[in-house]
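Hi, here's the filled form for the chain we discussed.

Project: internal
Contact: R.S.
Residues: 48
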Amino acid sequence: MDSYKPYNNTLTSLEQERLKKMYDAAVGEDKKILERVLGKYGAYKLEL
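And the returned structure, exactly as it came back:
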């Protein structure tokens, strides 16, 4: 199947870097949401 792209739903390095900066500055519910996004779509062992 040529249309199958297993890494299509992952973040690029730049996206991950920017979201991590936003995560570091976030508080409360925003921080929890960013943590979920980074955990779901970020690099496998990203440390938050």
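Let me know if anything looks off before we file it.
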